Amino acid sequence: MRPIAFLFALLFALGLWIAPPVTAQPVSRPAQTAAMVPAGPQKSENIEAELVPLTRWAAPGSTVVAAVHQKIAPGWHTYWRNPGDSGGPTTLDWRLPPGVEAGEVVWPLPTRQRLMSLVNYGYSGEVYLPVPIEIPASARPGTTLPLIADALFLVCSDQMCVPVQMSLRLDLPIREGTPPLDPDHGRALQTVLEAAPRPAGIEARAVLKDGVLTLSAAGGPLAGADPSQAYFYPFDGGVIDHAAAQSGVAGPSGLSLKLTPGADLKTGGLTGPISGVLATDVGAWEITAQPGPPLTGTTGGKPLSGEVEPVAAGTSLGLILQSVLFAFVGGLILNLMPCVFPILAMKAAALAASAHQAREARRDGLLFLAGVLSSFLVLAVVLLILRAGGEAIGWGFQLQSPAVIAGLALLMLGVGLNLSGVFHVGAGLQGAGVGPLSRLPGGMGAFFTGVLAVVVAAPCTAPFMAAALGAALLAPWPAALAIFLMLGLGLALPYVAVSLSPGLLRRFPRPGPWMERLKGLLAFPMYGAALWLVWVFSRQTGTDGLALLMAAALTTAFGLWLFGLTQAQRGLGRPARLSSIAALIVLAAALALAVVAGRAPVVEASASAQTGPLASAPWSGEAVRATQDQGRPVLVNFTADWCVTCKINERAALSSPRVAEALKTANAVYLVADWTRRDDAITRELERRGRSGVPLYLLYPANGGEPRILPQLLTEGVVVEALKAG
């Protein structure tokens, strides 16, 4: 740093330190009407700012969130509500339509910025400052409300500070209904809101003795949390020495911090409560410490580090790499999940057919991989496009559509009939005397098997997949596509590895009549998959839709039988025009019936969520909070009828007398979040927990607090022990 610039920075910092922090009064300026304030980002040399929404629109009588989105130039920073030893916080002066009211800024956790002997609290890079906005019930749908915030930023580097004033405008549409997230900023802003410090029922005490300020905190989320790091950010300057180190120790009920008092406490003593943010590596919360001796249970444990970093709005490279690895492992495990079992039949058939033809085996393996990867890519692109459009969807979203379920059920039936020899795709039975085993000519059948594997795998969320898919839906699109492709690579790898291993292929028996028997045997998993999909369809629609789908299935079977008859006639050199036309007509009728079945009226869910042996009630956020307010724990099962893993867990772990007794002993309430049909509230809750699909099991403690996430593969013992531990 040049000497003159260094001296200027030092004098400026000392001046700000001695002077009171900048208040919330903006610099005076000529009056501007709303029409004169442009919407969109405003720029200066060191900061770009924009007023952005959490959701795409606002409903009359609702509370929405708008945020000041800052992009701060490298080497510069803005300030938190307590700027620390120098600087001033960002201030907002709102100009709003009649009846619209703006709340206080929801301040994200700041970082500590050191300048020689001074320490400030502020933000660098990209930051959102959310503000709740109350929309009056009189707001008319179809109109637009102009929201204007006159913002004053104090933007500083290590050499100078520049006050920057901007008028930011957001035109907020008014519409009826629940709004989806804004496609550009909604997810990042939601992450900031979820991580922002809030009160959490933590009891705190502060005592000043022998020049040391001891702050103790206990209860709420701190009880049994086992933090390793902790730091206290006071709301007011002069309470602590911001530049001094903070030390602490954990205890069974909370923690205790040793702080150096600031100028105000040194001169006037501790005369009232101290408020601020207690940041730890397990969460950050607003606390108010009343004067008094340290709380019991806040000492006696391990020492605490004072290095706590805030949660970023974006996704770090480390998290992306971890998610890519988790996706690959999850794809491997997906081969063992129940929903993929039917596809194992087609894989086994394909391997048996080409086991002693190394060139064909390699081709089939690589084309199977191509089918899997291209299907995952298409599914990911569709999902991300819908997400960008504000749709609340997750993994397996296509299976929430009765029309898709109906089509898949008929497809599984057709594959089963093909394996049973009712009709053949490709060269038929002539040649070597062995049927094509559900494979299309050449490598097309292997590619088709890969596509079908992804479609059938959609109901499953294997271990390691949940976190990876949750991260994929929050990450930038290149990272998201990489996560999906690694998931596909994991799913396809075992088959590809075998197809590229001549030693393993030589262990297969030589082709012969046994392959025909194998083909017939492998048809039954496909029939089972078709029946399961029909059951899911009945849960989504009702008896009328089920009757139409069963008629479509019968018609499909008849049409494919006619198609097989046509193939047999042509194989004998006989004309088969009549049966061919009849097959086309019947299959067209089956398709029409399937379309009508998919559009059948949806039967509304009953008021009770009795989806399993345990007495249950439907899930909602209000139900969880009300139960916790009663001092009772809550076990929540996020499930869907098309999720085979969910149903296995419910039969194996959530239906035993031991679990029922454990629920009764713990005085717990069992809630079911049924995602069989689309439910945006459930989708948003899954996203909150870093998940993109089911199953998900949450155990909320009594008297409030965040839930414990149970394993995706449940056992009776896991549930019982979790309920005992509370």
Describe the secondary structure blueprint for this structure.
Layout: H1 3-18, E1 42-43, E2 47-53, E3 63-72, E4 78-84, E5 91-95, E6 101-102, E7 111-115, E8 118-123, E9 126-134, E10 144-156, E11 161-173, H2 186-195, E12 198-199, E13 203-209, E14 212-218, E15 230-234, E16 247-250, E17 254-259, H3 263-268, E18 274-280, E19 283-291, E20 303-304, H4 317-334, H5 341-354, H6 358-388, H7 402-419, H8 444-457, H9 465-472, H10 477-499, H11 502-505, H12 513-540, H13 543-571, H14 577-598, E21 617-618, H15 621-629, E22 634-639, H16 644-652, H17 657-665, E23 669-674, H18 680-688, E24 696-700, E25 708-709, H19 716-725
Parallel strand pairs: 12-19, 13-19, 21-23, 22-23
Antiparallel strand pairs: 1-2, 2-3, 3-9, 4-8, 5-10, 6-9, 7-8, 10-11, 13-14, 14-17, 15-18, 16-17, 16-20, 18-19, 22-24, 24-25
Helix pairs in contact: 4-9, 4-10, 5-8, 5-12, 6-8, 6-10, 7-12, 7-13, 7-14, 9-10, 12-13, 13-14, 17-19
Task: Tell me about this structure.
With 726 residues, this protein is of the alpha+beta class. Helices cover 40% and strands 21% of the residues. The two termini are 57 Å apart. The relative contact order is 0.08.
